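Re: weekly structure request thread

Next one in the queue (330 aa):
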Amino acid sequence: MTSRRHLLAALVATTAATGAFAPLAAQAQSTDWPAKPVRWVVPFPPGGAMDAIARILGEKAGKSLGQSFVIENKPGAGGNIGADLVAKAPADGHTIMITSIGMATNKPLYGKLSYDPVKDFAPVSLLAVVPNVLVTNQTQPNVKSVADVIAAARKEPGKLAYASAGNGTSIHLAGEMFTSLAKVEMLHVPYKGSGPAVSDLLGGQVNYMFDSITSAKPHLQSGKLRALAVTTAKRSKALPNVPTMAEAGVAGYDVSPWFAVFAPAGTPKAVVAKINKALLDAMKQPDVIERLDAIGAEPVGSTPEELATHLARETAMWTKLINERGIKLD
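Done, posted below.
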């Protein structure tokens, strides 16, 4: 009995000591961060707005923190491959992810995911919004407004086609939001990426596209495409003379493709705060603002709590639309 009492006493003492040192261990971990290069996962291919934003901000944040931010592209399955990788990474702040509205849309789109967008991630910060813009090509010289699009679509239901960068992308969902609120029928033509979609739009194989300003802007400047409206609630600095969809007559329309950073769930709050500060500081630099402006990205920034609230609001909105429109991906 005496030896059992000694054993129990030893276990209690060890447990108490471990509990007492746990906060100290977490504090030490946050103090040491970053102890090595930060792996910044981009769950889409290089070349898009998401990749550009990560590289621009990662370069600045790395210099300020004394450790490089290594951009790692992990494309596939609408961002799910990269998200799954980050969800399962060590929660020490040395692996983070930039993502977009897929964080809010993939669960209702795919049904079953290998990760939970809320439970498996720690929100860090909103970064920027890159508006989509409804564009048409030179084959439709008489289409000069959203009202013209709606009139043409009602005249020939289901005939006019709009391209997207793929099922479930913000470009696709912007079109679904438009057809729902404008009460018109249009044909959605998905492509494997924005590049081939824009190519067919320029060639006249499709009539419209709710393209990202980043990829549409050069073609707008050359006159090969014509902007009809931006998808955001307020006008874009990149296209100040182009009305919003709501201004153009589609009341309640607001599709704001956003980009944000998440870390694995369980990442110490002090580390999350450090990542947040480094990114927000980077976004205030004049040369960063200039580089973001060049791709049509409008800096936002937020606290982790504001990002969590934003994600919940976006998830509710998109889940409702996706279910109403019966959109499902395998």
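The longest strand covers residues 121-129. Residues 11-16, 20-28 have pLDDT under 50 and may be disordered.
Next request, please.
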